[in-house]
Write a structure and sequence with these properties.
By secondary structure, the chain is an alpha/beta fold. The chain has ten helices and ten strands.
Amino acid sequence: MMSESTPIIELQDVHVTFASRTGSLFRPNQVKAVRGVTMRVEKGQTLGIVGESGCGKSTTANVMCGLVAPTSGKVFFKGEEVTKRTAESRRRIGRVVSVVFQDPATALNPRMVVRDQLADPMRVHRIGTETERMKRVRELISMVGLPASALDTLPGQLSGGQRQRVAIARALAVGPDAIIADEPTSALDVSVRAQVLNLLMDLKRELDLAMVFISHDIQTVRYISDRIAVMNAGVVVEEGPAAELLANPRDPYTRTLLGAAPSLLHPTIEGIA
């Protein structure tokens, strides 16, 4: 039974180890991608996960959405343990959590019109009649700020920003409790990054979604997140409320990230309201 305080997603002491391509056939070397990660994703809250490439943030996201099973540790969705994945638990995870990937060009089927891309998740999960699905499809395309005419186009006929809006609409199709956005703006032009971020923030607020936002850019994470977890070498080195963590970073790695790079949201974070 889920109470108000039950997180949508919870990881407890999660480790993920992969066999690497180095070493011998019988004794491959191991890569510890995630080491002892504990996280809670609360209803209506955005958790930002930030760190450099290879820090384990995308692997952590893949555990959260059920794409990767942890080597050890526990995973809970809405209070129910789903560490050992069955076909049924995978289907339930698909209803709770949707993912928006980095590059909409590869996330969308190039041969399928937008209308079918949006209806497809509802067909897979057997949600509604075909008439109800088409009504929902029209609602979704409007929700992400695209005209109804976009429903009859192929992804290749849309701009990068429009494709990412379609990918966001598709992620919302089954009415999930949480969205995982893995570097959702890094493949886009600077001019449309802020628009897509603002859209995600508006939808999160309107639909009372939990959101996990993953990026290597700490300024973008700062703009969108309620809480931030900083990852380095598979470990969460620091986590806390966004404003507090960024005003008083305790870990040297967080301070390095803050001092390292200007925001991807050029020229300043304040200029994109």
